[in-house]
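We emphasize that the prediction below concerns an isolated chain of 290 residues; any contacts that depend on oligomerization or on bound cofactors are therefore not represented. The input was used exactly as deposited, without trimming of termini.
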Amino acid sequence: MGSRVLLTTTHLPFNPIADKSQKFPQSYTPCSSPRFQILCSLSGTIGNDASVTGGAYDYSKATTSLTQKLLSSPKQVTLVRHGLSSWNDESRVQGSSNLSILTETGIIQAERCKKALSDIHFDQCFSSPISRAKVHMKLLLLSTAEILWEGREEPLIFLDTLKEAHLFYLEGMKNEDAKRIYPKEYTMWRQDPSSFNVNGVYPVRQLWDTAKIAWKEILFTPGESFLVVTHKSILRALICTALGLTPERFRAVDVNNGGITVFKLNVEGEPMLQSLNMTAHMYTDYNYVY
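Result of the prediction step, given as a token string:
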């Protein structure tokens, strides 16, 4: 299969320019040969018994269960953020609206995610039903999840609990306009999101509640390896609830378009974060193995 390397990567902005041959930073040239893989070690070893990372031997009772019930088997959950949307590109406030669609760059990002995960077996794929992550291609609507799941026999599973936060009248506004027209509300959303509310409704706090429900819906589904494709804010909530972080830590975690995060869970439903916001596949032809 070629050489294997263990890498830690940082995010670089994805360049959404029309010329696809120039979409990679000059210092990050796609590799064609040999084919490299990023191995995310779950047990501290690569191959049979070569210790490389000193990974955790066991973590029973070390974290808090997401299910409060025993699972049928250990689980592995891969979280993916949708590709670049039109409102991302236009610097608009996101939310639960269906009006933001996947861009051409977003399609490329989704395709790169699919290739990067092509060596990983998934039993099921869960997605947000919001059509924002979809794009008009001729007469069809293709979502990021549908691009990643193309060719699989199992149908996509759409969960309402994976919808994005509802941000009321801020949704769809350009950030500069929202800051000017609603300075108090916009500043609170950016600087103290857990306290942002409209008529007593707290979107971020609600996300924490729905994220906890989503985790149970996913983990009690038959299978051992799951793919979840959804939006940034609910991904933050999924990650933070798994790590035991409160809504006040909403902006402590960032997830880029096409970013991949991996959790491993034991039969008690206790999660361990394996990888956070991996984006190396956006710049070169890596395949993840974990």
